[in-house]
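Explain this record to help learners:
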Amino acid sequence: MIKQFRVALAILLGALLANAPLSAQSDNLRVSVANLSQDVNLLAQQLKSLRLEMEDMRRENAKLRAQVAAATSNRDTQSRISSLSGAIESLRQEYRQADESQKKQIIGEVSRQIDALGRETQSAINSVANAVRSTPNVVAPVHFSEDYPQTGKPYVVRSGDTLSAIARQHGSTVKHIQNANKIVDPAKDLRVGETIFIPIAQ
């Protein structure tokens, strides 16, 4: 732009030199050159200011672009985070539902097994009870010994008597009294009013 002004200045000077007398041309030339020089300097300063303003605008534009890019990136990031949060919450709900369903299945299976075990246990108890009821009362044979004193005395059983009390009272033993009287079960075979023989060693 300054170059164009300089070209115009040269053309104007040529015109002035061609149309004016020499002394007048010299004065006019000085004035014109001074004016044009001032205009050129002013234009140069304005051009420099414009360049500085353009540099500032470029830097501001770059900064704004960076801010826009960052804002766009932040929106994308927030959108992704929001989407990811929704997916995580959905997975949590699915896990809770699956967990509850699995718990119910486990509880149901355990309850079924407990019921089955209870029925089996009750069946086994009933079988044992039936077997006990159906088993005949078998009394093991009792072998009585003849190895007891043959001497002694008769005794009439009274209410409240026991073989051990009778044996202590008469100086005998329970075993001798059982062998001499063939008593298998003293609780059943020792009857009130019955006469038994009490072996007493001499």
